Amino acid sequence: MSTRTSSLILYHHPFSRAATVLWMLEEIGQPYELRFVDLRAGEQRHPEFRKLNPMGKIPLLLDGDTIITEVAAIGLYLADRYALGTLAPRPDEAARGPYFRWSMFPSAVIEPAAMAKASSWEYRVGQAGFGDFESMSNSIEVALEGGPWLLGDRFSMADVIFGSTVRYLQRFKMLEATPVTTSYVERLSARPASLAADAKNKEIIDAHGLAS
Q1: How many alpha carbons fall within 13 Å on the CB side of residue 75?
Q2: Quick check: 30 and 6 in contact, CB under 8 A?
Q3: Where do the domains of the chain lie, and which CATH numbers do they carry?
């Protein structure tokens, strides 16, 4: 765990979406502090925590007095504030459009479409903003066809947001591992920041006896 020398504090558990935010923090290269939230003990539901996030969920990021929740929002915030022009295209760059598009796609489309299929939801596709599983899967392929990253040769925070979701769903067999998505996940997993985050997550798993 990093010694606190900045205002960034992540409420974290390695078996949660906060693991993705830890990767984001490693990508931006700023000092941060991790605060372990014992999900098994229900610490995320304690009144003190709900004052920060009424949803009673992590990830939760503090930057001084600023509170940010939701993985995509956290990623976009961090990239704009700490890596504008590198992990986030500048406002006057055309790449800003697809950057936002694919950053929002996981929570708006990929996750609900995957959940709908896994849970056999009955719904009218035309009335659901996330469409259907087949269209969602095809859109992932289209997003990555220009490769190696979502913005072509340029890696961005959108790849952390989008890629972490694709990697998770493939791992749990909720999304087909195609040649395109498999090579993408391999590139993501080989990034130094991803490897560093994985190592820190493992340290926390071992320290708290979380391994199954």
Answers
A1: 31
A2: yes
A3: 8-86+193-207 (3.40.30.10), 96-191 (1.20.1050.10)
Lowest mean pLDDT among 6-10, 66-70, 95-99, 180-184: 6-10
Of 3, 7, 18, nearest to 201 (Cα)? Answer: 18
Average pLDDT over residues 8-25: 97
The model's pTM: 0.94
Three-class HEC string of 89-135: CCCCCCCHHHHHHHHHHHHHHHHHHHHHHHCCCCCCHHHCCCCCHHH
For 70, half-sphere exposure in the C-beta direction (CA atoms, 13 angstrom radius) is 10
Q: Which residue has the tokens 């195609």?
A: 178
SS3 82: helix
Half-sphere exposure of 198 (CA within 13 A, CB side): 9
Mean pLDDT, residues 58-62 taken together: 98
∠ CA(95), CA(99), CA(104), 5° rounding?
155
Query: How many residues are given for the chain?
Result: 212
Distances (CA, A) of 102 to 44, 61, 105, 114: 29, 22, 5, 16
Determine contact, residues 127/95, Cβ cutoff 8 Å: no
The tokens of 35 are what?
């605060």
